[in-house]
Structure formats: C-alpha cells, structure tokens
Design brief:
The chain is α+β, with helices and mostly antiparallel strands and 396 residues long. The chain has helices at residues 26-31, 72-78, 93-104, 125-132, 139-149, 151-157, 170-178, 185-199, 217-221, 225-231, 237-251, 256-259, 265-273, 280-290, 301-309, 324-338, 342-353, 375-386; strands spanning 15-18, 39-42, 45-50, 53-60, 63-68, 202-206, 209-212. It is built from 18 helices and 7 strands. The strands form 2 sheets. A 5-stranded antiparallel beta sheet has the order 1-5-4-3-2, with helices on both faces. Strands 6-7 form a two-stranded antiparallel ribbon. The structure holds a DNA duplex (11 and 9 nucleotides).
DNA sequence: TCACAACCTTG
DNA sequence: AAGGTTGTG
C-alpha cells in the first residue's frame, strides 16, 4: 500500500527550493482557514490536493520541500508546455544530508537516510508551488510596511511570520467558502472532504486514505447534487452550491470564474454576489484567495470585533448587526491603513486571533539542548505534546 | 438603511 | 454559537 511520504524515511523522492521561513510558514499558511484541504499527516508534513495532484510539503529553515504522488499524471500536463530551465535547482545528496541533519536534530547522527534525488526535470512542480504560494510577493517587505504604519500589527508580526495568501483555484475557493456561512473551520473541513469524495475524481490512496480532486462546476450543477449534499450534512448550503454551479453554467460558462482574475476588484465582487449563497464576505474571500485581488478584505465577526477593540473603528460600534454599509466602511478603513495588500495583512491578524494558534503568544519555553533559532517551532511542538492551552492574550 | 428571524448541523 | 446569506418589515 502506498504511504504518505516522510522526509526522513529515505523511501521517497523529495525536491526543494530556497524559501525562508520569513516568507512562508507552512503551519500557519495552510492551517489558518483559507484552505480546507491540507492535513498535517506527520510532524510538519502537510498533505493535500492542489493543481490536480496530491502533494506532501514540509520545510526546513530556508527551504521548501515537496513530494508528489502518481507521476503518470504529469505526462499529460507537460504536453505542449514549455517550462523554464532548471538551473541551480539540483542539490547534492551530501548537502541535503548536512542540512537535514542540522534541522531535524537526529541524535544518532549519520543514521539519517534521505530519499532519492534525481536530476530529471521536475515536471513543473516547483513552478506550480511558486504560483500557489505567490512567492513573487515579498512578504517580509510587506510586513515591515504594515508594522511601520500600524502598531497593532507590529505587536504580532514577530510571532506570526510567513502568513501568506494562497492563489487557489477559483472553483474550489468559491464552493468551499459558500460552505463557511454559520460554520466552524473543523466542520467545514469535514464537509469539503465528503464533497470531494462524493463528486470529485479519485487521485490516489495513501495509508488507506483516498484523495480526490475538487469537483468540477459541471459535477456540482447536476440536479441530484442538492439531495446528495444534504445527506452529507451540508444543510441549507446544499442548495446554494447546486444553484450557484447551475447559474454559472447557464449564464456564463465554466471558464467565467477564472476570467474574473483579469477584471477589477469591485466588478469581480459584484459578479460573484449575484450567485446564491454569496454575500460580501464570501465574495471577498474568493476575490482575495483565488482572483488576485490583494486589497479584498473579508469582514467577518472576528474582524468586526478587532476593528472596534483594537482600532477604535467608530463606524464598527453601536450596531447590532454587520450591515452592508458598515461592512464596506470597515474594509475601506483597513485598505487605507494597510494599502493595496490590505487583504494579506488582514489574514495575519485573523490568523493571530485563531484559538488554535493562541499558544504561540505564550513566552517561549526553554527546552533542554535546544538552540534558539528553532525556538518557535520547538515551542509549538513542545506545547502540542504537553497539551498546554492558556487563556487567549488580548491586547487592549 | 437597519433589525430580526430562519436556515442545517455539530463541536 | 459557529468566519453568513436571504427574506421580510
């Protein structure tokens, strides 16, 4: 049976490229609720479906490592495409061992075996990842700019580093976020998993777990979908999904969503809002996370509270419900404060507000024999093991 | 433009 | 209640 790839096992092919932690922190970026399809299948190893195939990712101090499954898929994908030269991508096994040993703290030393490293062209995988993580956007520089204009941001910026917007598939993003209304992240993840298992193309099976692609708009538009999804626990959202898919095909065509990438923000948002189950909040999520609208800023109940509590945002206070007008004003307030990448800054604050990451705000715990450069990671692992969960730290 | 209820489940 | 949307007054 095929198993999930593990970096230290020596049984898998891993490739990597330079990507410092200040630019990307996988645990936060994949776990902050912008995507619902990645799971931590081993310590620091994230497995999920992206671009029609299954990946496992992990990172060391300054590199991002990746493994993909079922390489036969890549043959079709490569056809007719020209990829940039591979240049300095290849590393020697010796260098890998040195680096991995340094980072992974193998006490035995020398027992660590790494997977095969081939010199063949990687089939565009590195480029796919660079696009998915939008690595051309200089996150470290943006953090400095946001911190210079906003001391609340500055307070958390040193802890919650590398929180990056993904460039997700628009179809997956739209239909996933229609599921988020009145819902928790943990439950959403289960729903999306069942949605893909029911309507998505099967890709492979790892350790007995089947992986599926996200369903196509066509699959979601079928008349039987609402009943199926209600059976899977989608509640009233089942109809929204089927109707939105139907409306896209009937009124625009399957390529319409992707085409919104080249349309101005407000226009794209208005277009999305014509779909059932899509209000301002969901539309902004889709704009920000899949349509290249970096200024789109989803205002949920969290951001509403943050705006009042931390920013004394006057338009946010004194109302019982988040009206369309206030929604707009809060977004404009943060866009003025943070600039054209306001949506990215928002996700850092959102991430820092999540219950599951509150432990990162605690003072570091010194572990015996632990170097300080791996402090934050060591701290997280240590506290995961000890199950520490202290009260949320709020700054006022 | 604002407020409120209803909507499906479950952690 | 939970990262909302829709319909009604």
């Amino acid at each position: 049976m095929t198993q999930h790839a593990v970096f230290s096992s020596g049984a898998n092919v891993w490739r990597s490229f330079c990507c410092p932690r200040s630019e990307l922190w996988l645990d936060l970026t994949l776990g902050c609720g912008q995507t619902f399809r990645w799971r931590e299948t081993a310590d620091g190893h994230w497995t999920g479906v992206m671009g029609g195939r299954v990946w496992t990712l992990m990172q060391t101090e300054d590199r991002l490592w990746y493994h993909t499954y079922g390489s036969q898929v890549s043959t079709a994908r490569q056809a007719g495409r020209k990829w940039p030269g591979e240049g300095e991508r290849l590393e020697t096994v010796k260098k890998l061992k040195t680096e991995a040993a340094a980072v992974k703290e193998e006490p035995e030393g020398g027992t660590l075996e790494l997977g095969e490293v081939t010199s063949q062209w990687d089939g565009g995988e590195e480029e796919t990842l660079r696009d998915y993580f939008q690595l051309k956007v200089p996150l470290g520089d943006l953090y400095k700019e946001w911190a210079s204009v906003d001391h609340h941001f500055k307070d958390i910026a040193n802890i919650f580093t590398g929180v990056r917007m993904l460039r997700q598939d628009p179809t997956e993003c739209l239909f996933s976020f229609i599921c988020t209304s009145n819902n928790h992240i943990s439950r959403i993840e289960g729903m999306i998993e069942r949605l893909c298992a029911k309507l998505g193309a099967p890709l492979c099976r790892l350790d007995g777990t089947p992986y599926h692609d996200f369903p196509t708009v066509h699959a979601l538009a079928d008349g039987s979908v609402e009943a199926s999804l209600r059976d899977l626990g989608f509640g009233y959202r089942a109809r929204f999904l089927q109707q939105s898919a139907r409306q896209i095909l009937d009124q625009h065509g399957a390529d319409w969503l992707g085409g919104l990438r080249s349309v101005p923000y407000e226009e794209a948002r208005s277009a999305l809002r014509t779909l059932p189950g899509v209000g301002f909040k969901v539309a902004d999520c889709v704009c920000l996370m899949s349509l290249d609208k970096s200024c789109a800023l989803p205002v949920d109940t969290h951001m509403w509270q943050i705006a009042q509590r931390d920013y004394r945002c006057t338009m946010a206070t004194g109302r019982k419900t988040l009206t369309d007008k206030v929604y707009q004003e809060i977004g404009d307030f943060f866009r003025k404060l943070w600039g054209p990448y306001a949506g990215w800054a928002h996700s850092v604050l959102f991430c820092a507000d999540l219950k599951k990451f509150q432990k990162l705000k605690e003072p570091p715990i010194k572990m015996e024999g632990e170097g300080d450069e791996k402090e934050s990671i060591g701290k997280m692992k240590a506290e995961k093991k000890h199950g520490k969960a202290r009260a949320k730290v709020c700054k006022t």
